[in-house]
Amino acid sequence: MPTRKPSVAGTFYPGDPRTCQREIQEYLRAASVPEGIRQVLGGLVPHAGWRYSGPTAAHLFAAVDQAPETVILLGAIHRWGVSAPSVYAEGSWRTPLGDCPVDAELANEIIAIEGTPIVSSPQAHAGEHSIEVQVPFVQEAFPQARILPIAVPPSSAAMQAGRDLAKAVRSLGRRVLVVASSDLTHYGPRYGLAPVGIGEKALAWARANDQRLLDEIAAMHPSEVLETAAEDHSACGAGGIAAAIACTADLGANKGVTLQHTTSHEVVPMGRPSDFVGYAAVAFVA
């Protein structure tokens, strides 16, 4: 059975097992969960280096009140050549915390759905960090869980992929957590997006740009998420977000609750706000 070896251990997150586990535990302990958050079926987390995005991502994992059997990880795509929702359908993913098994039964159930846009393509995950950085969180927070990694392009196929995921989950009676991995607005000269220059005005502009997308996510509007992200350049993983919304809505979620919204500048300030990225943790709840 294939084992996907880590690509960014030691850079985006610690390569040492003890340090990796300790950092996750610290993030989870520090995470706050709003009163009344129950029945978390999925959500959104960011995927930068843990120094920046780990504390935000931990909010979603800490909010889950019932351990899932499988965590469906819907990732962004940062390279060319991935044109369809692509599942890593068997084997395991290796991290410093060990090998995390893939839910091959669920993968096969999805691929067998007539007309599904989801294809089996382990190559789509080569060198991609957006899902990898979440796997150690799964291993620590839900040690008995399997994963189902799917890279999702930002196209209308994302919504059908989400609905097919829900169909397969119901067919097998799986208890799942559906996690979209996406950062938000990439602002600054480095990213080619600086309409109001740098400084506090830039930070306010970027947060407002994020908020338009977060409003659509909270309302669980997958098509509007795709449109808004494309128009505003406010997400690098809009396909995964749309698929997660479509899937969890079919499984009973009715709203998204923002657990934290911040930026890399606010997490690690470096002078005046110039080049920075938005991060949010959102829970999809029933």
Describe the structure.
There is one protein chain. With 286 residues, the chain is of the alpha/beta class. It contains nine helices and twelve strands. The strands form two sheets. Strands 2, 3, 4, 7, 8, 9, 10, 11 and 12 form a nine-stranded mixed beta sheet that branches. Helix 1 packs across helix 2 (50-63). It is globular.
Element layout with pairings:
Blueprint: E1 3-4, H1 17-30, E2 40-45, H2 50-63, E3 70-75, E4 86-87, E5 92-95, E6 98-101, H3 104-111, E7 119-120, H4 135-141, E8 146-151, H5 157-172, E9 176-181, E10 186-187, H6 200-218, H7 222-232, H8 238-250, E11 255-263, H9 264-267, E12 276-285
Parallel strand pairs: 1-5, 2-9, 3-8, 3-9, 4-7
Antiparallel strand pairs: 2-12, 4-8, 5-6, 10-12, 11-12
